[in-house]
Design brief:
heterodimer, A: about 775 residues, alpha+beta, about 25% helix, B: about 160 residues, 2 domains, 5 helices, globular
């Protein structure tokens, strides 16, 4: 496809919120203070599994605190995340715990005049618990006679029994799997275990809430979706949505941790409603560490292939540890098989997924939503298969990957579309060249203390969960674009920017469409009442779907500008075009064949105003009908110190096919972030629980082992590159990038470690201890 | 605990506040409206609350407010304004060193303390100086580049 020339999209610019952020002026939820605001605090359970026998709130009330307990909250069961359609949505959560199912769960909450008093009051509440056996391992939780974590949950509008601590299951079968395996020349299989890790977003979950005189609420939450917060608060507190105003507030990173409406939001709302005063509630870091993690689980994967490397089929079994609540387990089970069949063409596939409750922090989406886990398994096995076949692992990937013209599952079995842009060959060849793929050592061929290895991980993420037909995932965006009398443009959208520059991209896309200088296009402050619905910034959909909505609105405005100018200029609208006039610094609407028939956008908008005619504006909803894969591959060269077991990144090359690169600097930053978070996942990040269900170290951030600067590559050792592609369904050719950048990284490290020392690891993180143990076992079995 | 009057001089403005002995400098500064000082963990793990205390970068969550009595405290917001940002702030904005922005103030403070002591640091020295500041969004390459770029600009300005 011929790529149109772009004027603004793809330019390196200083982001609009950049100066506010670097000078410390940006205001996040914990920075908001309101007159007569109270300070909230939750009372966290010190047990991981317990019945609440009684709560005595009097000591806290005697200190002047407003106290919230089970008796004060609406007894409405809900699901924090409402992206899944209601008919298949599980609901097992209340504003405060009916029963404690994880350490740190809120059993009560207080609001008081100062933070110090709130803390004191929360500690003064007396709770009597009946402590129950703690289940930490899914294989223990599903055993007969295991203590039930739940008796029932809601499934759609029905109450269903929960037995064996199984939250839900999901099976998929396509083609003839038995025949595929019977015909196979080679079969590879492995059991892969991945761990729960903490999102480690810099801002802890937070909320400010003000009760309004009309019975409504104004809310400033930490969230990835203002509209879903509004809908849930409306359902829980039985308030019309038109009385709930949820404001868009910048967030200090999320990485999936605020896709759902997190506990502090409804607790803060309930406190504000009871106190009849504004309340701010911010989680401490320890509370936040106990709150959510990435999904952990065991993946048993089997691949069948012909001698020439053609994949014939796969069998996959997944047992997921979803922690104390079911936020999106049904969806997670669905996407997990989707990621596999969208990585490689697998015409025959059988899948069984089981989601198991445990007394641990709640599993939720974290950059990739099951994709890093599945990609770790699949990309490790593809390397094993290549070795068995004596093929170059890169060639095996090129032979089988899901690319141009193939069907792609963007978000589980119900979200399917066809791939229309594909930069995979470009990316693989370029990355191989940078890393020196041809010169990689033979696995296990090295001796000596330091051993180097090169590994490849290939992956992707979906750009949105769009598809031709509705599925079990809600996915659409909205935007309003409005031309002001001075020719400047307001973009009004509920779309959240987690920091990656999504809104900067939106401004560029609109400026491009309207031929207006970027400095004249700005994002208006937004809240639920003034915006169209936007589902949530997740699924790498911000630029693709949120941008798609903005461009759709801008396109309507462009047409209206032409039709309006046509009246003023006395020409046919079809004869008009738009361009950016560098001299006037304005967009102009003009007749190409009659140079003096032209008006600037400012002139058109001003005349519409002075002649009392109209505002030129458009408000649209946009449903993406595709979910293009955003491809990323990463080549890493690592060095294993066989004396200490430490793994050092010598060099990393990351390539992205995100279609048109809208913000080049920000996109490179997304790749670097993906590498760092992926390397942490591969090598050291983990949340571990002791037998009581306490996060190791009490939940201090340092125990989550978030990578600091010393754990990341030096400037010269990290190289990014981008494919030259154009996504026909994307806004000005763009698709997503964010989550794709994390997904293949752990596999690349596992493959590089195998290449260096000849030991394959099936469990993350691959810590120095595990490497030393494996090397010692090798030495013991090897007479040399 | 009887509150004591503590004198805090922040970004050249002097405040006299009555504070309990257990109140940290972080909480005192945020209560005074210096919300650029972020509360990331309150345990000294993340560096988001870093300020200059008599020119030295400290995690304000690990300093009790009374320990800063009479000292000069500088926060990132005091280094520059929207109209006249500090060269470090400009460099962070122009090199992609800011994404969500939550770690940014602390990172700029750490970098500022470094450049005051060592106007032309090596990459290794920058990495050491920023080793206490976590960034989860992007990582540290663009932050390192920003510090290098700011150092070059500040050297030039000093050299005339």
């Amino acid at each position: 496809m011929d790529k149109p020339k772009l004027n603004i999209v793809g330019q390196e610019t200083r982001r609009k919120d950049g100066v506010a952020r670097v000078t410390g002026q940006e205001k996040y939820t914990p920075d908001i203070s309101l007159p007569r605001m109270l300070h909230g605090r939750i009372l966290s359970s010190p047990y991981a599994h317990a019945r609440i026998r009684s709560i005595d709130a009097r000591p806290a009330e005697e200190m002047g605190a407003v106290v919230l307990t089970w008796d004060d909250i609406p007894h409405v069961r809900y699901n924090e995340r409402i992206i899944t359609v209601p008919s298949v949505l599980h609901k097992d959560h209340y504003v405060l715990a009916d029963k404690v199912r994880r350490m740190g769960e809120a059993v009560a909450a207080v609001a008081a005049e100062t933070e110090a008093l709130a803390e004191k009051a929360a500690r003064a509440i007396r709770v009597e618990y009946e402590v129950l056996p703690v289940l930490l391992d899914p294989s223990e939780a599903i055993k007969d006679g295991a203590e039930p974590i739940y008796d029932t949950a809601m499934w759609g509008t029905n109450e269903i029994p929960i037995s064996g601590n199984i939250a839900c299951t999901r099976n998929v079968e396509e083609g003839d799997v038995d025949q595929a395996f019977a015909q196979a020349d080679v079969i590879v299989e492995g059991r892969f275990n991945t761990q729960k890790i903490y999102h480690a977003q810099m801002e802890t979950k937070s909320c400010v809430c003000r009760p309004e005189p009309d019975g409504g609420l104004t809310v400033w939450p930490t969230t990835q979706s203002i509209h879903n917060v509004r809908i849930l608060l409306g359902q829980i507190f039985d308030i019309p949505l038109s009385k709930i105003h949820v404001k868009k507030v910048p967030v200090g990173g999320t990485f999936g941790s605020s896709i759902q409406m997190n506990p502090p939001i409804p607790i803060c709302a309930a406190l504000a409603l009871k106190a009849r005063r504004p309340v701010r509630l911010t989680l401490t870091r320890e509370e936040d560490v106990h709150d959510h993690t990435r999904y952990a689980g065991e993946i048993h994967l089997k691949l069948a292939a012909r001698r020439d490397g053609t994949l014939l089929g796969a069998e996959m079994e997944l047992v997921g540890d979803i922690g104390a609540h079911n936020i999106q387990a049904y969806s997670y089970l669905g996407v997990s098989i989707g990621w596999l069949v969208s990585l490689y063409r697998l015409p025959n596939v059988r899948y069984h997924g089981t989601a198991v409750y445990t007394n641990k922090a709640i599993s939720c989406a974290m950059q990739g939503f099951g994709n890093p886990q599945v990609t770790f398994a699949a990309e490790s096995l593809i390397d094993e298969l290549a070795e068995k076949l004596g093929m170059d692992p890169l060639e095996l990937r090129l032979k089988n990957y899901v690319g141009l013209g193939d069907t792609f599952w963007g978000q589980g079995p119900t979200v399917r579309s066809v791939v229309l842009s594909d930069g995979v060959p470009q990316l693989l060849h370029r990355g191989a060249e940078i890393i020196g793929w041809e010169h990689r050592p033979k696995p296990g061929s090295q001796t000596g203390r330091y051993r180097r290895g090169i590994g490849l991980g290939r992956g992707f993420h979906t750009s949105s969960a769009g598809a031709p037909q509705p599925g079990d995932v809600i996915d659409f965006s909205g935007a309003m674009v409005k031309v002001n009398t001075d020719g400047s443009v307001d973009v009004v959208t509920a779309l959240m920017d987690h920091g990656g520059g999504t809104l900067e991209a939106i401004a560029k896309l609109v400026a491009e469409e309207l031929c207006v200088p970027l400095e004249l296009v700005n994002l208006a402050p937004a809240e639920t009442g003034s915006t169209m619905y936007d589902c949530v910034t997740h699924a790498t959909r911000g630029v693709y779907a949120g941008g798609g909505a903005a461009v759709k609105a801008a396109r309507q405005v462009r047409q209206e500008l032409k039709e309006t100018a046509a009246r003023f200029l006395n020409v046919m609208p079809e004869a008009l075009d738009l361009r950016l006039d560098k001299q006037s610094g304005q967009g102009v609407v003009y007749v190409p064949s009659i140079p003096d028939r032209r008006m600037t956008i400012q002139e058109i908008a001003t005349r519409c105003w002075t002649e009392s005619w109209k505002t030129i504006a458009a408000a649209v909803s946009f449903r993406p009908t595709n979910c293009p894969p955003a491809y990323v591959n990463v080549f890493v060269e690592i060095e294993v110190d066989t004396w200490t077991g430490a793994v050092r990144t010598v060099m990393a090359a990351m390539g992205s096919d995100c279609g048109t690169v809208v913000n080049p600097v920000m996109a490179a930053g997304q790749l670097e972030g993906g590498l760092n978070k992926g390397a942490g996942y591969a090598l050291f990040e983990t949340n571990e629980w002791n037998a009581d269900g306490q996060v190791a170290g009490g939940g201090y951030w340092i125990d989550a082992k978030t990578a600091a600067i010393g754990e990341t590559p030096r400037l010269a050792d990290f190289i990014t590159h981008f494919a030259d592609t154009w996504e026909p369904t994307g806004p000005h050719g763009a698709k997503g990038i964010g989550e794709a950048a994390t997904n293949p990284v752990a596999a690349a490290y596992a493959n590089a470690i195998y290449n260096a020392i000849g030991v394959r690891f099936y469990e993350l993180p691959i810590t120095p201890e595990k490497i030393l143990r494996a090397l010692a076992a090798e030495n013991a079995s090897d007479p040399h | 605990m009887t509150p004591q009057i503590v004198t805090l001089t922040v970004n050249s403005r002097t405040h006299q506040v009555a504070l309990g002995a257990h109140i940290t400098l972080l909480r005192a500064l945020r209560d005074l409206g210096y919300t650029d000082v972020k509360n990331g963990c309150e345990k000294g793990d993340c560096g988001a609350c870093a300020v200059l205390l008599d020119g030295k970068a400290v995690n304000s969550c690990l300093v009790l407010a009374w320990q800063a009595d009479g000292a000069q405290i500088n926060t990132n917001a005091g280094l520059g304004t929207q109209e006249n940002p500090h060269p470090l702030q400009v460099a962070f904005a122009d090199h992609g060193a800011v994404q969500c922005g939550y770690c940014t103030s602390g990172a700029i403070i750490a970098a500022h303390a470094l450049l005051e002591a060592n106007p032309a640091p090596t990459e290794t020295e920058i990495r050491q100086a920023l080793s206490g500041n976590l960034c989860r969004c992007t990582g540290y390459g663009q932050i390192t580049e920003a510090v290098q770029a700011a150092a070059a600009v500040m050297q030039k300005v000093k050299g005339g």
